[in-house]
Amino acid sequence: MDPEPRFEQLYRSYADRVHAYARRRSDAATADDVVAEVFLVVWRRLNQVPEEPFPWLLAVARRVLANRRRAEGRAAALRDRLAGAGPVSGGPVAAGDERVLRALAGLGDRDRELLLLIAWEGLDEPEVAEALGLRVNTVAVRLHRARRRFAEALAAQDADVLTPMEVRR
Fold first, then answer.
1. What are phi and psi of 67, to 5 degrees?
2. pLDDT confidence of residue 163
């Protein structure tokens, strides 16, 4: 059987059932992503899909969900470390410069990732574009915005440090 018709037949026959499985274990947006990832695996391994594919599809969906949970756990741990009292061990942030870590922790994931790839990993814009699968121009625009938001987060911390007496002046 030609790969495209077989893939389309599998998708038509099982996507709703895989979505229902994922939806019972996650939110709607995650369930949509799980279905997309499952059928990406199907496309890549079409020759390995068994004759009775539904159990195999559910096994793939289960692994996708498990990978997502692990990734969310790692992201939460990173946010906790960034929001913690000190710099991440081995990072280039000077000891005691907690305001930088708090500002980073307050940024969105996308902004923080861009800034960390540039500052901590030492990548340039073309390398960041390759790492994130983006165009260089897109990275440049996002990086400009991320730097602005980071500066605003630092300024907001400085404003929070002012005493009521300094604000009245």
1. -60, -40
2. 46
* Measured distance CA(160)–CA(12) in Å, rounded: 55
- 75 and 41 in contact (C-beta within 8 Å)? no
Is the pLDDT higher at 72 or at 33? 33
Which residues of the chain form CATH 1.10.1740?
Answer: 3-77
- Which pLDDT value is given to residue 82? 67
CA distance 19 to 36: 9
Q: What is the pLDDT of residues 84-101, one digit of tens each?
A: 544 444 444 444 477 788
Give the Cα separation of 102 and 18 in Å (integer): 40
DSSP 135: -
Residue owning tokens 């708090």: 102
Domain 89-168, CATH class in plain words:
mainly alpha
Q: Hey, which CATH number is domain 3-77, 1.10.1740, 3.40.1710, 1.20.120, 3.10.450?
A: 1.10.1740
